[in-house]
Specification:
Elements (H helix, E strand, L loop, with lengths): L2 E5 L4 H12 L3 E6 L10 E4 L16 E4 L5 H13 L6 E5 L27 H16 L4 E4 L2 E3 L8 H9 L4 E4 L5 E2 L1 E3 H14 L5 E3 L6 E2 H11 L6 E4 L33 H14 L9 H8 L3
């Protein structure tokens, strides 16, 4: 039985990961400020990761799954607290992001390519780079995962939930142009499977792009979201010169990760259609938990005619 520290534990990826490993029989400790309901089967460490002091001294972990590190300071503060507590950490896995790759690099992005600023992701991407660099500097044997867009149950980000809401309301969907921009997704359970494989196998590579091998166009993704909700999508194509983030969940940015190295960890991924059905089932019972944005109101105000 592993003793796993999961940072966060109350929202989407960290919550799913905490319950995933608790369900495997591991002793899972979640580190958060206790402002939200806690994941089932876990042990709460109520603290701010930036003000830990000696709070970790009374525990013993062999694994850290760091899902909520967004800056180098986030990593350094946690590592300082672990060192001060005399923790002997065997494995440290950081969930980073595909946002660390500059949009100017040739695609698909590979782990061997240089990281750098990306104009679409801005500070989020550069801060993730700092988190990676701080971790590698201090824990050379740590592992880093770089996913694309994550989806699945417990996702409170207004992405598939936005499309599900449009489907439930039997609305036409407002597409950016023809909706032919390709997106790359990864189910949160597959991300957890990758973390589990790292803990079990300790592969020689330490940085992994992870994600579904195949991309999907925006139009196809919306169609699958509507089907998951039992509806058929109808569209209005938007060609006005406006910021599409005012009415749509994604930037006008197409990229692809090379996930061939992922085969060292898992050999299959959840089909997107199946994963979206699972996502919709969760959404049906948790609509109020989604961090809703005003896309529908904007559409009704700007495009209704």
């Amino acid at each position: 039985m592993r003793k796993i520290l999961v940072t966060g534990g109350t929202i989407f990826v960290s919550r799913y990961a905490a319950e995933y490993f608790a369900g495997k029989g591991d002793a899972v400790y979640v580190l958060n400020r206790n402002h939200r309901p806690q994941p089932s089967g876990t042990i709460l460490i109520e603290a701010d990761r930036h003000q830990l002091g000696d709070v970790l001294r009374q525990y013993a972990f062999d694994t850290v799954l760091d899902v909520t590190a967004y800056t180098g300071e986030d990593v350094s503060n946690l590592l300082d607290a672990l060192e001060n507590a005399g923790q002997d950490i065997k494995d440290y896995v950081l969930v980073s992001s595909s946002a660390v790759y500059p949009e100017t690099l040739p695609q698909p992005f590979a782990e061997s390519q240089q990281t750098g600023p990306n104009k679409y992701w801005g500070a989020y991407g550069t801060n993730k780079i700092c988190a990676e660099e701080e971790l590698v500097k201090r824990v050379p044997n740590a592992y880093i995962l770089r996913p694309p867009y994550l989806y699945g149950p417990m996702n409170i980000v207004y992405r598939e939930a936005f499309v599900f809401e449009c489907a439930d309301l039997n609305r036409k969907f407002y597409l950016p142009k023809k909706g032919d921009t390709e997106l790359q997704f990864f189910h949160v359970r597959d991300l957890c499977r990758c973390m589990e494989a790292i803990l079990d196998k300790h592969p020689s590579n330490h940085i992994f792009n992870v994600g579904n091998a195949e991309g999907i166009t925006v139009r196809e993704w919306v169609e699958q979201c509507y089907r998951a909700a039992g509806r058929t999508a109808a569209y209005v194509e938007v060609y006005q010169d406006i910021n599409q983030r005012a009415y749509f969940s994604f930037y006008d940015y197409e990229y692809q990760l090379d996930v061939s190295r992922q085969g060292e960890l898992i050999d299959t991924t959840i089909p997107l259609e199946e994963g979206l059905k699972e996502s919709y089932l969760w959404y049906q019972g948790h609509r109020d938990e989604v961090a809703r944005k005003g896309y529908i109101e904007y559409i009704d105000r700007m495009f209704a005619y």
